[in-house]
Design goal:
The structure holds three protein chains of three kinds. Helix content of chain A is 46%, strand content 12%. Chain A is built from 19 helices and 13 strands. In chain A, the strands form four sheets. Chain A has a five-stranded mixed beta sheet with strand order 2-1-3-12-6. Chain A has a four-stranded mixed beta sheet with strand order 8-9-7-10, sandwiched between helices. In chain A, strand 1, helix 2 and strand 2 form a beta-alpha-beta unit. Chain B has 13 helices and two strands; from the N terminus they run H-H-H-H-H-H-H-H-H-H-H-H-E-E-H. Chain C is mostly helical. In chain C, 72% of the residues lie in helices and 0% in strands. In chain C, helix 4 packs parallel to helix 10 and helix 6 packs across helix 7. Chain C is globular. The relative contact order of chain C is 0.12. Classes of the chains: A alpha/beta, B mainly alpha, C mainly alpha. Chains in contact: A-B, A-C, B-C. At the B-C interface, helix 1, helix 3, helix 4, helix 5 and helix 7 of B face helix 1, helix 4, helix 6, helix 7 and helix 8 of C.
């Protein structure tokens, strides 16, 4: 066949395919309704949540757009004016979205429609979706981390469970953790190592002291920050002194990919850890693991009660609040996944209805039924909670979270620097420590501080208004010293 | 001689094993139940081939009891459709440009070529935003055009084919010229057949690269019906964990036609050698 | 050459270049010029930062930022895997293009059948004996042997190209598990042999760690660390990939007359390679080296994003990952563009040197 004929045939085939492509277009929008797109994850519960919203709002048609891999896509699309109407954001992303101007300020509308943070939100958690006093969304879910423990591992080591209703001090916790740790001495079933805890790092120690990254004026506070210093030192101890938990990279490798902690949870459910610091949403994963374990026993015809080795038993959970420092009140950081509105969406007024829906009873009930995190509105914190299997102690976990929320806080933001920048710089320094025990805390803090000062100076040089504000607060000298 | 050939086979087989491990692991994971996914074993303890049925929506997802909300046939069609268009357009435009850069003499040729080459040296990250805004301006967002046209022109392909065409002896063009062929005829009937191995290699790279491309479709596509397979695979990732076993099952189904395509193309390459041998 | 002929040639060249040039101007050169202009401004994704010309401020900041040099060093260091990977691809391609048939296809079919039968018997015995895992591994080995013996080159090419098909999340997940310092397969095997396994992705050590690098470079000393882990993975993934396919295509383009002539002269295998194959592959090698440098200097983004987040201690942060964090996490596109343009100048200089040296031999 000659080249020309070959090319002609190829094009003919492709044009035929194009015809199919143009015909094969399923209709998605419902006539006469205003379409709204919500960028969120493809969590199985979304279908019910969206259907309920569409039933309550007959004039609107909400649909899910999953596959948002974060900041880059939303910012790129929204900055070009073609973004989604509603999208989810985590606490750490809020500043970037607000900074990029893609999140719509809903403060006034929220007051009018009854979903303002003051009125309908958890008092400790308002700042997960409020920035410099302006509200930019409402939580799809929210909560604090709690200390979940696997009763089977405690039974295996013959250690009594953490006492219910009492908040341990960190010293008491370390003592307990060492009793259920076999890192250096694999005494577990089939010689497996059992780490005392997963999910615990410098951040819990920092939060537990009500730590702040910035001072009241918004200046980064790294070098002379006792809370940070103490948190980093304890972090080092947990890894090197007590060997209670793997380093974050080790944990990440154990967890596999994804970064949602599902791997960690599987490892915990399989008895590789005695305790876990996590949100109670992990119950979704534990429910699955538990069902599988029960199913396997049933197939073999074994009843769970007849098993003598506790590590072979199906998962049994308990939960208490995370420890606190002796002489200091307990304190936990609130985190949320919130929905916000694209400031350039043509249907942003209609999208407000969705935020209102998130603060209402219908959504909260659906959320609680699914054992997700807490609803954003504390009024409905317990609405529709299912008891579930007694072994998983679902109500105990939910109650602990609600209780922790009463001690909740959110670290303050600075107009001059993103908290995300601080965290990235600190994490890089901490991974330095994890690969090399000889790095001193002073080294880390100094390196982090100088890197942050560079970023701060760069921000100020590029933004005249910000520079003016900075010089007003701290004087010309401080600026020049950066 | 026979012994040496056998030795070669043994060496090649040993390398083949290390290369095949991830694929075997993927096959193994694709029939694992969810709680075994984190284990490093190649073979599941309790095989669960239903994963394939779940992905194909013949069975409900055991955790939710619902059928997955997936549109695999359309995504599959989209992927093949877009990759086919991109491949043919890119091979065509690149080979034409390569002809101009390798067979024709014109002032400034090498300087323009260096400029082409230079554009590949700018990381795509910084041109993403301007590029996206051009797409918005052309109203190409969420359309097939937006996924096909920007990928149809490639400095990479031009460079690759130029190198191949440089290897074709000049005597062939000269012979064609004596026969009275014009440039178009020389290009179509002499150079393209001679550059066949290069064209096949570029087709493989372009098709596979486009079939697997992720970032650009991710930002360009908005409707479910416009998704390609790599974007569709994101639906297995949730806030509370990803269903790795289903991703793997879908990926296996995704990869098999690509492997067949590769084998067919390589066969073409080898038959090309024989043709060349006959001619020479 | 007279003017009219020149003009005519230019016209013909333009006709051939036309379609590509049009797309090139709109979708490549345009955005690139925008990014060049942007690198001299406060170009930002923050609306609160007005777009303003700031001269070479971005470049000054860049060159006074110690991180830039560190990430540049990382990028170059990771590039050192390239010669190994290209050499491996060339070697594989040369082997695969040689005759692999065992006295004609009949013998291959017979041998392949024999190994299939052996595999089937051994595997079923093992499977019945209860060691399913070993049985399946052996089954895979048997299948590879059968396919290799029967299909020869095409079979092997496909196997070697497999990492390329499964590229992305799956492969990265697998390697992360392999590299686990405690539970990973690699360190478990090393442990069996009595060798203490390195920390891989958790370690800042490097093979150049003995150099007196600045403190800021987080030098963890001599050893195998995260960077080596990424290099090994990269070599593994690319050795049988596109470069091998290109070399195979290049070899198939070599006129057989050349080999026939050398056979008459009584050349041995190495001489054939040294005096025919390698020089004839120069255009391909030139292409592969140039693309390797271009790709390598822009590389490390996916692994950093999915595997290491640029850590530990920034040792796997390459310039491309740095551009991403600056542009899309810090929203500072102008600074990111400046990094990209410095990177561009470096790549361009390297390529021009390469061009002068490599293109001369191929031009005639």
């Amino acid at each position: 066949m000659s080249t020309t004929k070959f090319l002609a045939t190829l094009f003919a085939v492709l044009i035929a395919l194009s015809f199919i492509a143009s015909v094969w277009k399923p209709k998605e929008t419902v006539d006469g309704k205003i379409p709204l797109t919500w960028v969120s994850d493809n969590n199985p519960a979304r279908t019910a949540q969206i259907n309920a919203f569409n039933e309550e709002n007959p004039g609107l048609y909400l649909r899910l757009d999953y596959g948002n891999t974060g900041v880059q896509k939303v910012i790129l699309q929204s900055a070009s004016g073609v973004g989604p109407d509603i999208f989810d954001f985590g606490d750490e992303q809020m500043e970037a979205y607000v900074g990029a101007g893609v999140l719509w300020d809903v403060t006034e509308a929220a007051e009018k429609m009854g979903f303002s943070g003051k009125e309908a939100g958890w008092p400790g958690g308002v700042n997960t979706y409020t920035y410099q006093g302006r509200q930019y969304g409402f939580p799809c879910n929210t909560g604090c981390q709690i200390l979940i423990f696997n009763k089977n591992v405690f039974d295996h080591f013959g250690v009594p469970y953490p006492e219910k209703g009492k908040i341990m001090t960190w010293d008491e916790f370390f003592e307990l953790a060492q009793k259920v740790n076999s890192h250096t001495n694999p005494t577990g079933a089939k010689g497996r190592q059992i780490f005392a805890i997963t999910g615990l790092d410098w951040r819990q120690f920092f939060d537990s002291q009500r730590g702040e990254f910035f001072d009241e004026n918004g200046l980064p506070n790294i070098l002379n920050n006792p809370a940070l210093r103490k948190a980093l030192e304890l972090h080092r101890d947990v890894i090197y002194k007590y060997r209670l938990s793997p380093t974050s990279v080790e944990a990440k490798q154990m967890a596999g990919m994804g970064g949602w902690g599902s791997g960690n949870l599987n490892q915990f459910a399989a008895g590789r850890y005695a305790m876990l610091v996590s949100g109670h949403w992990s119950l979704i994963a534990f429910g699955r693991a538990y069902d599988k374990q029960m199913e396997a026993l049933q197939q073999k015809g074994i009843s769970p009660e007849s098993i003598t080795n506790p590590l072979e038993r199906p998962l049994r959970l308990g939960a208490v609040l995370c420890p606190h420092f002796a002489g200091r009140p307990a304190c936990y950081r609130v985190s949320s996944r919130s929905a916000g509105i694209n400031s350039r969406s043509p249907h942003r007024e209609e999208a407000l209805k969705f935020l209102q829906y998130l603060a209402g009873p219908t959504y909260s009930r659906l959320l609680n039924e699914e054992a997700d995190f807490l609803p954003g509105n504390p009024k409905y914190a317990e609405l529709g909670v299912q008891p579930g299997p007694a072994d998983l102690a679902r109500p105990e976990l939910q109650d602990a979270t609600v209780e922790a929320m009463n001690h909740g806080y959110v670290p303050r933001y600075s107009p001059f620097l993103f908290t995300g920048d601080v965290l990235r710089v600190l994490r890089s320094q901490i991974s330095r420590l994890e690969s090399n025990p000889n790095v001193t805390t002073d080294d880390m803090l100094k390196a982090a501080n100088s890197e942050l000062n560079t970023l701060l100076r760069r921000n100020l040089e590029r933004n005249a208004d910000l520079r003016k504000l900075f010089i007003e607060r701290f004087g010309e000298e401080t600026f020049k010293q950066l | 001689m026979e012994f040496r050939t056998l030795l070669k086979h043994i060496g090649l087989i040993l390398i083949a094993i290390t290369m095949t491990v991830p694929f075997l692991w993927m096959l193994g994971t694709s029939i694992k139940p969810h709680h075994e996914v984190e284990e490093l074993s190649l073979v599941p303890r309790h095989p669960q081939p239903e994963n394939y049925a779940i992905v194909l929506r013949q069975k409900p997802d055991p955790y939710t009891g619902k059928y997955l909300d997936l549109n695999f046939p359309k995504w599959y069609f989209n992927s093949i459709f877009i990759a086919s268009w991109v491949t043919i357009l890119q091979v065509l435009t690149s080979s034409m440009a390569a002809y101009a850069f390798s067979r024709l003499h014109w002032p400034g040729r090498d300087k323009v070529f260096l400029l082409y080459l230079g554009t590949m040296m700018i990381p795509g990250m910084v041109t993403m935003l301007p590029n996206y805004q051009i797409m918005v301006g052309l109203k190409f967002v969420n359309t097939y055009q937006g996924l096909i046209i920007p990928a149809a022109f490639s400095a990479f392909g031009t460079f690759l084919l130029r190198q191949f065409m440089l290897g074709i002896p000049r005597s062939y063009d000269e012979a064609a010229e004596i026969d009275g062929a014009n440039h178009l005829q020389t290009f179509l009937d002499v150079i393209l057949p001679m550059a066949r191995p290069g064209l096949i290699a570029l087709s493989i790279f372009t098709f596979l690269g486009n079939f697997q491309s992720f970032f650009w479709p991710l930002v360009m596509v908005k409707d479910d019906a416009m998704r390609t397979i790599p974007i569709g695979l994101l639906s297995f990732q949730g806030q509370y964990g990803q269903q790795t076993e289903l991703i793997m099952a879908a990926t296996v189904m995704n990869v098999i036609p690509l492997i067949i395509l590769f084998v067919v193309m390589q066969k073409q390459l080898i038959s090309g050698i024989q043709l060349g041998g006959v001619k020479g | 050459m007279n003017k009219a002929v020149q003009r005519r040639q230019l016209l013909i060249a333009l006709l051939f270049l036309g379609p590509n040039l049009l797309g090139f101007l709109v979708f490549t050169l345009g955005p690139i010029l925008i990014s060049l202009a942007g690198s001299f401004t406060t170009w930002s994704l923050r609306p609160s930062v007005p777009l303003r010309f700031i001269g070479i401020q971005n470049y000054i900041d860049l060159f006074t930022d110690p991180n830039f040099y560190f990430y540049f060093y990382n990028t170059i260091y990771l590039l050192l895997a390239m010669p190994i990977s290209i050499g491996g691809s060339l070697a594989l391609a040369v082997f695969l293009s040689q005759k692999l048939e065992l006295r004609g296809p009949r013998a291959a079919a017979r041998l392949s059948l024999i190994s299939a039968i052996i595999t089937a018997v051994v595997c079923s015995v093992l499977f019945l004996a209860g060691s399913g895992s070993i049985a399946l591994v052996l089954l895979a080995l048997g299948l590879i042997t059968c396919v290799g013996l029967y299909f020869g080159s095409i079979g092997y090419r496909t196997f070697y190209y497999l990492p390329h098909f499964t590229a992305g999340a799956g492969t990265i997940l697998l390697w992360m598990q392999l590299y686990n310092p405690n539970f990973g397969l690699i360190n478990q095997v090393l442990g069996q042999l009595g060798i203490p396994g390195p920390g891989w992705l958790t370690s800042t050590k490097s093979l150049l760690g003995f150099l007196p690098l600045p403190e800021h470079f987080n030098n963890g000393g001599f050893g195998l660390g995260a960077r080596e882990a990424i290099m090994i993975m990269g070599i593994w993934a690319s050795i049988g990939g596109n470069n091998m396919v290109l070399y195979l295509a290049g070899i198939s383009n070599i006129p057989p007359e050349l080999y026939e002539a050398s056979d008459i002269d009584g050349a041995n295998g190495w001489q054939r390679f040294r005096y025919i194959t390698f020089p004839q592959l120069m255009p391909t090698t030139f292409f592969i080296v140039v693309m390797g440098i271009i790709g390598g200097l822009q590389g490390g983004f996916e692994t950093a994003r999915l595997m290491t987040e640029g850590g530990p201690a920034g040792t796997t942060t390459t310039l491309s990952y740095y551009i991403y964090t600056q542009g899309f996490e810090r929203l500072d596109l102008g600074y990111g563009a400046a990094v990209a343009w410095v990177l561009f100048i470096i790549i361009m200089v390297v390529t021009l040197i390469n061009w002068r040296y490599g293109n001369r031999e191929t031009a005639d």
